[in-house]
Amino acid sequence: MIGKQIFNRDELKRLIFELLADIAPEADFDTLGLDEDIRLDLDIDSFDFLNFLIGLNEATGVDIPEADYGQLVTTNDICDYILARMP
Amino acid sequence: MNEFKMPSLGADMESGTVYNWMVKPGDAVKRGDIVAEVETAKGVIEIEVFEDGIVHKILVEEGSDVPVGTVLALIQTEEDEAEAAVEAVVEPVMAVAEAAAEHHPMDHRPLVSAQKTNGVAPKAGERLRVSPRARKRAADLGVDLTLVTGTGRGGAITADDVEQFMARQKAETPRITPLARRLAADLGVDIHKIQGTGPQGAICKADIEKAADRPKDVAEPPKAEVKKAAEPPKAVKKEKPRVGSPDMMRQAIALAMARANRDIPHYYLETQINMQAAMAWLEAENMRRSLRERLLPAVILIKAVAKALSEVPELNGFWREDSLELQESIHIGFAIALRQGGLVTPAIHNADLLTVDEIMEKLRDLIVRTRAGRLRGSELTDATVTLTSLGDLGVEKVYGVIYPPQIALVGLGKIMERPWAENGMLGVRPMMSATVAGDHRASDGLVGARFLEALNRHLQEVDKL
User: Does the domain spanning B174-213 belong to CATH 4.10.320.10?
Assistant: First the structure.
């Protein structure tokens, strides 16, 4: 695990939105609820999702096994997951 | 002389706009080189040339919308060159005289001189004085020697001249992101007048938007004569619906599909495939892979479809002019949805011969380029069959419309848990519905059934894919 930077929750949220904005440039993150299903809400397919996870992994150093994909549904889920595993 | 024509990038294309020439008269081109960008309802497509040669003349200007089949440029091939060489021997005197009038480098040149401006091996009737080192350097850097002013003996071009020319050109070509370049062209912004605020002073989208808001500067004296092919900002050209817009694409799809439904007598077959073995293999495989190397289920599906087609080739090919043309190569057109609506089905060439990792890499590349609107012409034209996989949506099955001139379309639904009876036992399995739409002019249901059987078999043995 190569921790690149320590993130707090707010920074992590910003990182998530940045990564998602690359995938869904038209999305309005002001209205995206933190407990909404990002894949459903932003129309993200499995290819986009994989790229999103790659970006998340590269920034935080947290590995995300495929079996855990199901735990990463909402922005809050993702924050919880990453923060708990941050080096 | 070969004619380079506006290609048909699919059954739904009637015309295209030359968006950008990547070459100019006198440039040497090789088979597969991208020579132009053409804007179609499917976005900007890079068009390759299909033979080696030298660009002789460009006949259609950037910004012109022309029907499919229009000759866009003339390419001088090697056969022409052989003839030209003979002429050249006869004409050295004329050529030298011409060299004196060396002032309009962008002009189209007559055949004889065009050949010699490429830093290729010197030929009879040499016109430019160029030192061998300079010639080599120019070829390496891709510098057009006719644009370089020589400072050597008798006005000969030296290697230094080439280096300096290159440095000057770099300085005059601002760093700019592709998006910003396109936006600048659309808005008619002169990128030479903008100070970039991006990394290393690169001009980015925001800079263009800011510049577009400002009143236009008073006309400046024209820029120095050095122009790069891709540089001149193009004025806004079109008032009609923006090409590549969802509306245009909708119309194009509608046209092609209406034709398909009218002309092709479709038959449909469907089967349920137990995906347990395939998913277990994929899971185990991905467990030991880093995020970056992981495979998507689509990759296995593409490979399995390709292998099944190699066993049942009767579904792989085209129906053209009332006859069946089966194809040996298996190029799978994979339907990729665009965020703004519509879809594009670029081809994964020779999918049956690629490993799953190669397919994953290819798929990644294609998806990225499809969404960025940077596909190549051949990728849009030579798919021999289409695969549409709706795995990401909650859709169980898909009955597709065949994309003419193809003769089959394979539709795969979402993999979902279902009750499944096997060996007298009822259990829950990840199941996928597979459909095939076939063209009854080309094949019968039996062929489709054999294909689905083969597909199922390959998906039960994915480790052998």
Answer: yes
